[in-house]
Amino acid sequence: MQWQSYEPKTWQESDVDIKITHCGICGSDLHTLRSGWAPTNYPCCVGHEIVGTAVKVGSKVEGGIKVGDRVGVGAQSDSCLKPDCEECSSGMENHCQNMVGTYNGVYEDGSKSYGGYADYCRAPSHFVVKIPDSISSAQAAPMLCGGITVFSPLKKNGCGPGKKVGIVGIGGLGHFGLIYAKALGADEVVAISRSSTKKEDAMEMGATKFIATDEDKNWASHNARSLDLIVSTVSSPKMPLMGYLELLRTQGQFIQVGAPEDVVPPFNMFALIQKGVRVGGSCIGSPAEIREMLDLSAKKGVKPWIQKRPLKEANQAVVDMAANKA
Fold first, then answer.
1. Cβ-proximal residues to 290 (8 Å cutoff; 6+ apart), any chain
2. Angle at which helices 172-183 and 148-156 cross, to 10°
3. What are the tens digits of pLDDT across the range 227-260?
4. How far apart are CA 101 and CA 48, in angstroms?
5. What gap in Å lies between CA 76 and CA 56, rounded to an integer?
6. Per residue, what are the HEC states of the chain?
7. Which of 21, 154, 202, 216 could form a disulfide with 207 if both were Cys (CB 3.0 to 4.6 A apart)?
């Protein structure tokens, strides 16, 4: 990455200009920088976990945002917002067919979207959220993509009292999964990883049980029919999917949020049919869900595990993250 200027989206009176103070590093940044999911529209400024101060506010902004407010923007910065759009009209803007990513996207007028590894960000106010006073900017930033990516499927699929929930992968997304499953009140929170290297950390994050799949060849049968919901944050084409499905109880749900650059393993349909199991996916969350997540985080004192790095070290930080060192 090279430091240079860019032309932001064309100003509209519904926009907010944000002076950025913090931006999280997301796995999406790595995929996009290397054109892993699809060819990237270079030049591209990544970063979609943005927190800063509103320095310019249009006359038609939503949400009561004022100059000086501490605000944030997640992975989405626009959608069609048309009343006849099935998704936008029902609070599912994140599934709009005309969704615009906070970076590497194109707005309706043809201008490009640029992300948060920068001094400033311009975004439509519909997708700008206020940050609660009790959450620090450094803590809030990774919630805006990493946090909501797991909070949304947990909440939508019934995570709470009386439920036993599994989280596959103990990385950035997975650690949020453990934290939010606990905050939502699940009876049991099971961390699932290949090895027990992160067991101590996982238990501190909120796990009540740990399954190391590479350390027990019978891990699936030993824990069969024990979980109501699994959220998978991993993106490996070698994931033991059939084993994960074995962990589910009758009518259990397996929700995938990790986004592989290739295909996932095949599985036998009887793994779904015999227990009435459902397999689904989830994509970030709507602005309303982000606000709900931030409110819960403030109420429950949720604090993600973070590492702070100055922007001048962005290149090294990205390399370190790719090497699982950050």
1. 74, 129, 143, 144, 148
2. 40
3. 999 999 998 888 999 999 999 999 999 999 998 8
4. 8
5. 20
6. CCCCCCCCCCCCCCEEEEEEEEECCCHHHHHHHCCCCCCCCCCCCCCCCEEEEEEEECCCCCCCCCCCCEEEECCEEECCCCCCCCCHHHCCHHHCCCCEECCCCECCCCCECCCCCCCEEEEEHHHEEECCCCCCHHHHHHHHHHHHHHHHHHHHCCCCCCCEEEEECCCHHHHHHHHHHHHCCCCEEEEEECCHHHHHHHHHHCCCEEEECCCCCCHHHHCCCCEEEEEECCCCCCCCHHHHHHCEEEEEEEEECCCCCCCCCCCCCHHHHCCCCEEEECCCCCHHHHHHHHHHHHHHCCCCCCCCCCHHHHHHHHHHHHCCCC
7. 202
Q: What is the pTM of this model?
A: 0.94
* Residue 314, both tokens: 């962005």
Residues 167 and 207: their CA atoms lie apart, in Å, by 9
pLDDT digits (tens, 9 = 90+) for 287-312: 999 999 999 999 999 999 999 999 99
Amino acid at 249: R
